[in-house]
Write a structure and sequence with these properties.
Layout: H1 2-21, H2 24-27, H3 43-46, H4 52-62, E1 68-73, E2 77-82, H5 85-94, E3 101-102, H6 123-133, H7 139-164, E4 169-170, H8 171-188, H9 201-210, H10 216-224, H11 227-233, H12 240-259, H13 268-278, H14 285-299, H15 301-316, H16 318-334, H17 341-346, H18 348-360, E5 367-370, E6 375-376, E7 391-392, E8 397-400, H19 402-406, H20 425-430, H21 449-466, E9 467-471, E10 495-500
Parallel strand pairs: 2-8
Antiparallel strand pairs: 1-2, 3-5, 4-10, 5-8, 6-7, 9-10
Helix pairs in contact: 7-8, 7-21, 8-14, 8-15, 10-11, 12-14, 15-16, 15-18, 15-21, 16-18
The chain binds protoporphyrin IX containing FE and 2-acetamido-2-deoxy-beta-D-glucopyranose (2 copies).
């Protein structure tokens, strides 16, 4: 009898706890979907069926009139999903000090190097790290680093003609080889050997870091949802081996340069050191190594994804591919066939096509912001006052559902159509603020946009100058997103093939 009562009591407590937690928002008069026990609204994500960003998109679609929605993440953690561009602007730009941190559960007791990465760093450390990186991306520095990009384009070109030809290839894999070599060269003056050496250090590193694997779901969950799970599995954003690799290889490059008194390298590493020496600051080798790891980690996969999806869209929209190619031909003719930063900048239609690609396939389907200072919520529905004043506490998560906004038919009519003209100069001016979020917005917006676009455009120009790109029969249509990874990844690859455009 006693055991029976105890079981009943426990059950009652569990049910009560669930109901209490999953009514957090409705008790405050804020609307949103009810959470399930444990899973909250993230059931489909936790069973490995749907990428977390797509779940936010589903909820976004169910409340078309709201300016935000009260939701429940894993373990019924209450969070706010932003539903209109005005609220997004409020959180990311106007009230930035109230939301200054990203939500990424990385533990500073387990690892230290990644805290030099502005994407991860918080508070004052973020401000310092970001201010050291931003000067690396001025238009002038972009121009100076362009020779690195151009030389890797030559390698890409010969790899395609010697090793791929008209055979099917996986787009992201090819583009990642290219961006990895560009970043290795532009950042530290090293040869990534991605095209020539299957076992190169850089190739191995990338396997370690970014390939979807059976543990991706657990890692993504530890990073975005459950710090306690991270503690349990000793999760690291940068695996120990990778951190060690960075420390070894960058220290080696730095000491070689010191010995040879060689400081005329036009690369990010040299500029970082020069900037420190100019202000008379101590050159803190650890921070420099940290910045070098940031450049690689943030710099190569996002651009590779952008390039691969652009190739995909060009394949399924041949008339747009033609228009891109005729712009490329025209500009390259004008520049006597020489790929330069100036030439790349003149390709405005290609630019628009890349923005449109990021709109349809953003590498980050959602961005998460931590409330860092109490914030009073405005009305949830236009003109309808909240039942009571709701002040959000520090630590509450605000979700910016990037993909949902990008696919919203109110903001982008016929949203699944690939139409670069949406991003023509004229249309850009008229577009609503914060409706394009491919690089984020506000003080934490991606500082590497210029470089990301420069390398992506140069690589695409190299390919499309000589080849038409087509879908391979192997390519699933429509593309599905891998449900387990942090960044957008195509579930079964983006399979393409080249066809020579004309006799060279
Ligand atoms: C096309 C390529 C790229 C895309 C789509 C992209 C996208 C993004 C996005 C969405 C964010 C988050 C912004 C936010 O939280 O509001 C971000 C942050 C960041 N990106 Fe990029 N990125 C690209 C290329 C690069 C490159 C090439 C670099 C550097 C070499 C870079 C470095 C960073 C850094 C350091 C941050 C953190 C900024 C901060 O929190 O202050 N990105 N990027
Ligand atoms: C944001 O934080 C500041 C400083 O704590 C506070 O004065 C302000 O009212 C907050 N903004 C909102 C909309 O609550
Ligand atoms: C976007 O914001 C800027 C500055 O706040 C403003 O001048 C502009 O009119 C806004 N654009 C639109 C389309 O609302």
């Amino acid at each position: 009898m006693l055991t029976f009562l105890m079981i009943l009591g426990t059950l009652f407590l569990i049910v009560f706890n669930w109901i209490w937690n999953s009514t957090y928002w409705s008790r405050q008069g804020i609307k949103g979907p009810m959470g399930m026990p444990i899973f909250g609204n993230m059931f489909q994500y936790l069973i490995g069926r749907r990428q977390y960003g797509l779940i936010y998109e589903d909820i976004y679609k169910s409340y078309p009139k709201a300016s935000y929605i009260g939701i429940y993440r894993v373990m019924n953690e209450p969070a706010i999903l932003l539903r209109n561009t005005e609220m997004i602007k409020e959180i990311m730009v106007k009230s930035f000090p109230n939301f200054s941190d990203n939500v990424l559960y990385v533990n500073d007791k387990r690892e230290d190097l990644v805290f030099c990465n502005p994407f991860i760093a918080k508070g004052e450390k973020w401000r310092v790290m970001r201010s050291e990186l931003v000067p690396m991306f001025t238009p002038n520095k972009m121009k100076l680093s362009f020779p690195h990009i151009a030389s890797i384009c030559k390698k890409l070109d010969s790899f395609i003609s010697n090793d791929i030809g008209e055979m099917p290839f996986e787009g992201k894999d090819l583009c990642a080889k290219y961006t990895l070599d560009v970043v290795a060269s532009a950042a530290y003056g090293l040869d990534g050997e991605s095209f020539t050496n299957k076992g190169s250090d850089f190739t191995k590193l990338v396997k370690e870091l970014f390939m979807p694997n059976p543990l991706s779901l657990v890692h993504t969950t530890a990073l975005l949802f459950l710090p306690k799970l991270g503690d349990l599995i000793q999760y690291r954003y940068l695996p120990e081996k990778v951190q060690q690799w960075f420390v070894t290889i960058i220290s080696k490059v730095m000491s070689r340069r010191r010995e040879l008194k060689d400081n005329n390298n036009g690369d990010f590493l040299q500029w970082l050191i020069d900037a420190k020496q100019k202000t008379g600051e101590l050159v803190d080798e650890f921070t420099i190594i940290g910045h070098c790891s940031t450049l690689l980690i943030e710099g190569f996969e996002t651009s590779a994804s952008l390039m691969a999806y652009a190739l995909y869209e060009f394949s399924v929209n041949p008339h747009i591919q033609k228009r891109v190619q005729s712009e490329i031909d025209e500009v390259m003719n004008k520049h006597h066939g020489k790929l330069s930063y100036e030439a790349i900048l003149e390709m405005t239609y290609l630019d628009a096509a890349l923005y449109e690609t990021l709109r349809l396939h953003p590498p980050m389907l959602a961005l998460l912001k931590h409330c860092t200072k109490p914030f009073e919520l405005p009305p949830q529905f236009n003109g309808v006052k909240l039942r009571e004043k709701v002040v959000i506490e520090e630590g509450t998560i605000f979700v910016v559902p990037v993909q949902a906004v990008h696919h919203d038919p109110v903001l982008f009519p016929d949203p699944h159509k690939f139409d670069p003209d949406r991003f023509s100069e004229e249309n850009k001016r008229q577009r609503e603020n914060c409706s394009f979020l491919g690089f984020g917005e506000g003080p934490r917006m991606c500082p590497g946009m210029r470089f990301g676009f420069a390398q992506s455009k140069a690589g695409l120009v190299t390919m499309l100058m000589k080849y038409n790109v087509q879908l391979s029969e192997k390519c699933p249509k429509p593309l599905e997103i891998s449900p387990t990874t942090f960044l957008t990844t195509s579930r079964s690859g983006i399979w393409l093939c080249f066809k020579a455009r004309r006799l060279q």
